[in-house]
């Protein structure tokens, strides 16, 4: 499909630069297959679901993966994308023409990394020197990797270390937050529990590729970056049992959805999963695992707009986005939410 089919005009003032406070005060647009859209709030979620439904969260934790440093007299920036092993990360490098294999980049605080290899997509393999765990080095030298549409408008600050982390964050490794879950609070979880709505967690370490624009003219020519994920056997068993009992599986965020779909066989059964996924969901995809999706509002012509269009239909989603823009919903990572129920 032509990428331009997923384009729309977004006024710059609709881009949220800070989250709602408290988090569950955000708005939420209810989108069903047909009928009018419903303007609700995230706190209405327990009333929008049914007892026996299960929300599926991503428990990845965002690490301070944005680094600024030097190679000799040249300034460079690095955004870590995907862990390779204990000391190596794949990274996208700004001013990459000044970095060659074998060069050492200095990121301050005694943190140095060797550019071991330049990969076919232009990214680098960085080997972090020393004996301290890389996570410790990043806490010392790194910044939270805010999306460029926020970072380009204001500086990252200490508040972002709290704001850009979900209440479920437990497994270090993401360089972007699973932002749909940023809306949840202990109070909202208590209300969901009282309504008989279940919850499960899985892990997908979101990579920096999520911020990359689709440069191809046709979706068939776009290559997705892979990300590492895990679904535990007991989680898969409980999700299958909930669905068999008539409950719906509602993915909280596109990361949870993509991992669930990657872990599900043609028979519709979710299985244990551990490894990389580069699943690219576009209209025409036959969903096997999920019955709904809670997600924020995404960038024009992005892979995530393609994904929600696959779930609800392209025209339906573009209509929903027009409604959201006209009714002053806040967009992107720190913005409002939508609940998609096909």
From TrEMBL:
InterPro entries registered for this protein in UniProt: QueA, QueA_dom1, QueA_dom2, QueA_sf
GO molecular function, one term: S-adenosylmethionine:tRNA ribosyltransferase-isomerase activity
Record localization: Cytoplasm
Pfam families named among the record's database cross-references: Queuosine_synth
Catalysis: reaction(s): 7-aminomethyl-7-carbaguanosine(34) in tRNA + S-adenosyl-L-methionine = epoxyqueuosine(34) in tRNA + adenine + L-methionine + 2 H(+)
Keyword DNA damage: no
Record keywords: Cytoplasm, Glycosyltransferase, Queuosine biosynthesis, S-adenosyl-L-methionine, Transferase
Pathway in which the depicted protein is active: tRNA modification; tRNA-queuosine biosynthesis
Protein origin, superkingdom: Bacteria
The protein's Enzyme Commission number: 2.4.99.17
Enzyme kind, highest EC tier: transferase
UniProt record similarity statement: Belongs to the QueA family.
Role, per record: Transfers and isomerizes the ribose moiety from AdoMet to the 7-aminomethyl group of 7-deazaguanine (preQ1-tRNA) to give epoxyqueuosine (oQ-tRNA).
Assembly behavior: Monomer.
NCBIfam families registered for this protein in UniProt: PRK00147.1, queA
Full protein name: S-adenosylmethionine:tRNA ribosyltransferase-isomerase
Species in which this protein is naturally found: Qipengyuania citrea
The gene coding this protein: queA
């Amino acid at each position: 499909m032509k990428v331009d089919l997923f384009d729309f005009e977004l006024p710059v003032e609709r881009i949220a630069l800070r989250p709602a406070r408290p988090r569950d005060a955000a708005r939420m647009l209810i989108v069903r297959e047909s009928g009018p859209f419903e303007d609700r709030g995230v706190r209405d979620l327990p009333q929008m679901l049914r007892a026996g439904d299960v929300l599926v969260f991503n428990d990845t934790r965002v690490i301070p993966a944005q680094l600024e440093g030097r190679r000799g007299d040249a300034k460079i920036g690095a955004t870590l994308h995907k862990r390779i092993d204990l000391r190596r990360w794949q990274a996208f490098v700004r001013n990459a023409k000044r970095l060659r294999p074998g060069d050492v980049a200095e990121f301050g605080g005694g943190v140095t990394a060797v550019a071991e290899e330049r990969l076919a997509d232009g990214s680098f393999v960085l080997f972090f020197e020393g004996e301290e765990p890389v996570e410790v080095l990043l806490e010392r030298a790194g910044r939270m990797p805010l999306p460029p549409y926020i970072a380009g408008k204001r500086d990252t600050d200490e508040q972002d270390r709290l704001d850009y982390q979900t209440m479920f964050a437990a497994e270090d490794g993401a360089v972007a937050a699973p932002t749909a879950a940023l809306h949840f609070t202990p109070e909202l979880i208590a209300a969901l529990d009282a309504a008989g709505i279940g919850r499960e967690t899985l892990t997908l370490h979101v990579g920096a590729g999520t911020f990359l624009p689709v440069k191809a003219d046709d979706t068939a020519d776009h290559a997705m970056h892979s990300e590492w994920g895990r679904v535990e056997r007991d989680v898969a068993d409980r999700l299958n049992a909930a669905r068999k009992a008539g409950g719906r599986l509602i993915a909280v965020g596109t990361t949870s959805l993509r991992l669930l779909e990657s872990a599900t066989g043609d028979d519709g059964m979710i299985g244990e999963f551990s490894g990389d996924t580069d699943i690219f969901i576009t209209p025409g995809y036959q969903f096997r695992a999920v019955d709904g999706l809670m997600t924020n509002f995404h960038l024009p012509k992005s892979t995530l707009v393609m994904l929600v269009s696959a779930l609800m239909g392209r025209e339906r989603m573009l209509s929903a986005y027009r409604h959201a823009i006209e009714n002053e919903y806040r967009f992107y990572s720190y913005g409002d939410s939508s609940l998609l129920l096909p």
